[in-house]
Design goal:
By secondary structure, the protein is an alpha+beta fold. The chain has a domain of 64 residues. The protein is built from three helices and three strands; from the N terminus they run H-H-E-E-H-E. Strands 2-1-3 form a three-stranded antiparallel β-sheet, with helices on both faces. Strand 1 and strand 2 form a beta hairpin. The longest helix is centred in the N-terminal third of the chain and has 18 residues. The radius of gyration is 24 Å and the shape is globular. 14% of the residues are buried. Keywords: Signal.
Amino acid sequence: MALGIWTTYAAAIAVAALQLGADPEAGRAQPETPLAPGSPAALIQQHDCWSAEAPRDMSGRLPGHAIVASGATPRYVGSDLTGKALDQVFAGDDHDLVVYAFCR
C-alpha cells in the first residue's frame, strides 16, 4: 500500500514538472548551439582569436590579424586594419571600427 502511494506521488511530481516546463534532461551536458556563420563568435573560433588577455605564445608579439567591423559585417582582416584596431583599442584613436578580437 505504501509503495503504491509513493509511486503515485512520484508520478504526480513528474507530470507537474513537465507541465511547468522543467527539463527532464537538466543537469546533463547539452549539445552546444552552433555558431551563426560569419558571426564574430564563429570568426573568433575559426581563426583561433582572443578577445581578452592574449595567449602566452603571443606575449611580446603583435597580432597579425583581427576580427573587426567597419560596417554591419564583421570580418577577419590582415595587418593593415589590425594596426588600426590596435590603435583604437590601446591608444584611443577612433578609426570607426568595432573591434571584436585579435588573432595570430
